[in-house]
UniProtKB/TrEMBL annotation:
Organism: Amycolatopsis thermoflava
GO MF terms held by the record: DNA binding; DNA-binding transcription factor activity
Alphabetized SMART domains for the sequence: HTH_ARSR
Keywords from the named record: DNA-binding, Transcription, Transcription regulation
Protein name: DNA-binding transcriptional ArsR family regulator
Pfam families named in the record: HTH_20
Domain HTH arsR-type per the UniProt entry, residue ranges: 1-92
Biased segments, Basic and acidic residues type: 109-127
Keyword Transcription: yes
Region of interest (Disordered), residue spans: 104-127
Amino acid sequence: MHAFDVLGDPVRRRILELLADGEQPSGAIAAVIREEFGISQPGVSQHLRVLRETGFTTVRVAGTRRLYAVNSEPLREAGEWLERFRHIWDQPLDALATELARGKRDRRLRQEKDNARHREPPEGDPP
């Protein structure tokens, strides 16, 4: 299974998000996924198996618990592949940032102008 096939599933992405905070027991993962996605324990186990078999997670047994953790290598490889396309979205995002800054500057200048106008005494009144 290709990395993006694995990452294309919202349940598996959510599991990886949960594991980004550190190692988690399978039961805790299953509880969150059941609550958020409404899928069964066997369904969650299937997603955990896919993540484990594709190398996105590691698992270790601690007594009766199975503790899952993220294996960063496949994520790094996917990130490197995506990096080749960064120029496609960086330029439009840079342009958007410029427009947002320009809009903020224009609003600030209008506000300063309005404030200055309200501070000026009316004509004919002594200062």
